[in-house]
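Weekly sync, protein design subgroup
Attendees: M.S., D.O., the rotation student, P.L. (late)

Item 1: inverse folding check
M.S. brought a backbone from last month's batch and wanted to see whether the design step gives back something sensible before we order anything. D.O. pointed out we never logged the input encoding, so this time it goes straight into the notes. Structure tokens as presented (169 positions):
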């Protein structure tokens, strides 16, 4: 009897039909057969409905969690900036955002892309270096200043592909 039952369901998986409404192919074993009216929900229908309700609630909770995290992240950033202002003796006094600064140390200490963090549009680019006493470093600072004032520079974009090919634009 058990073998006959297994054989019966196995055969149903191999019988296919075509839906008269939409033309989709379906397995006989996947159909829900009923006459005139849809039958009353059984335990599986109730379980599916409960799972759907839970998924919706999880999505709603995830959205709330994301909003709370975004608010906390922003609050943390503001608090961090207040802390940075207390100890920063370079950028904040010059009304520069420390996040805009990139440390290079040589030939100058910092390149500040002023306005990069606030807006995606730069106000200007600042070469920021400490006052030096060494003649060699002073000469480099003067050279950089002179090159910029004479507009003796150019912009070249170098694109390095994943295969190592270098392309200049």
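Designed sequence read out in the meeting:
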């Amino acid at each position: 009897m058990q073998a006959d039952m297994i054989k019966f369901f196995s055969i149903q998986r191999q019988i296919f039909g075509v839906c008269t409404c939409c033309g989709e192919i379906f397995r006989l074993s996947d159909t829900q057969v009923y006459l005139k009216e849809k039958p009353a929900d059984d335990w599986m229908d109730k379980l599916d409905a409960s799972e759907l309700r839970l998924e919706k609630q999880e999505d709603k909770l995830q959205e709330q969690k994301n909003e709370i995290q975004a608010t906390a992240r922003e609050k943390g950033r503001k608090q961090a900036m207040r802390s940075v202002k207390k100890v920063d003796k370079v950028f904040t006094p010059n009304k520069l955002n420390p996040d805009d600064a990139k440390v290079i140390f040589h030939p100058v200490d910092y390149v500040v892309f002023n306005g990069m963090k606030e807006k995606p549009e730069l106000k200007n680019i600042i070469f920021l270096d400490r006052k030096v006493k060494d003649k060699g470093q002073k000469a480099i600072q003067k050279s950089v200043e002179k090159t910029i004032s004479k507009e003796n520079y150019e912009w070249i974009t170098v694109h390095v592909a994943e295969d190592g090919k270098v392309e200049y634009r």
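Discussion: The helical segments are 2-12, 43-87, 135-149. The radius of gyration is 34 Å.
Action: P.L. to compare against the previous round before Friday.
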